Sequence to fold (272 residues):
Amino acid sequence: MKILKTIEELQEVRKNILGTVGFVPTMGALHDGHISLIKQARTENDIVFVSIFVNPTQFLPGEDLDAYPRREEADKKICEMCKADYLFMPEISSMYKEEEVLIKAPNKSYILEGKARPSHFDGVLQVVLKLFGLVQPTNAYFGKKDAQQLTLIQQMVKNLFLPINIIPCPIVRESDGLARSSRNVYLTAQQRKDALLISKSLYSAANLIGKKEISVEAVKNRMYEVMETLDVEYVEIVNREFDKIDTIEIGNTIILVVARFGNTRLLDNIWL
Ligand code: AMP
Fold:
């Protein structure tokens, strides 16, 4: 595996690649969730690029940009183990100019995650578009864990006519059900235990729906009951376009949860 630190190095490598290119953009502190994306990219493409870039424009003032876990050496080993061909780790100063062309995410980016983190998705789309321009992937891999992000990236690719396939990948969980996240390291032992109620609430929702309950209100109530002791920021049930719905439709519904543990927000969801 070759590590590319500059944009010039990446462009030099990219222009000589003829086959299919799989791309996994990340912010590092890699875990099994990222690994599953890289492994899927490996099986489906001739060449695999992973990027690690903690993108400042998607963090709001006061968020954890400076504290975001950084594990460069361990991450390099993981990418190597997953047989990535190139690991791109650019400096912030090379990715952003003094004056930028800004990306304005659509209105739906201001609900749910975008309501809690206004303009967060502007920054996400901006960096993803830049990375797409550099890597020019055939296939780009994104986790369903960040459901709203995935949907907005799909919309951007469609709206801007980018010739890139966006491949949604399943959520990877710890053996006890907690969705893998780079931010799980912030949790105390007690918070880590309490956080299990998030996935438990999603499983109980799925169970209820399995018993033919299709009322969004009833399902949400059950989830709030399960997470009674948590600081739940939201439970929302939406369709694949992220419109709120009243009745659940199998094949076109996503149930989303965010709960807070001190300063740490944990996201989880299931796609029905
Ligand atoms: P991040 O490093 O948090 O920006 O995540 C990079 C990519 O990994 C995004 O597409 C995430 O959705 C994906 N990802 C993060 N956690 C998981 C997980 N537990 N399962 C599957 N994909 C994940």
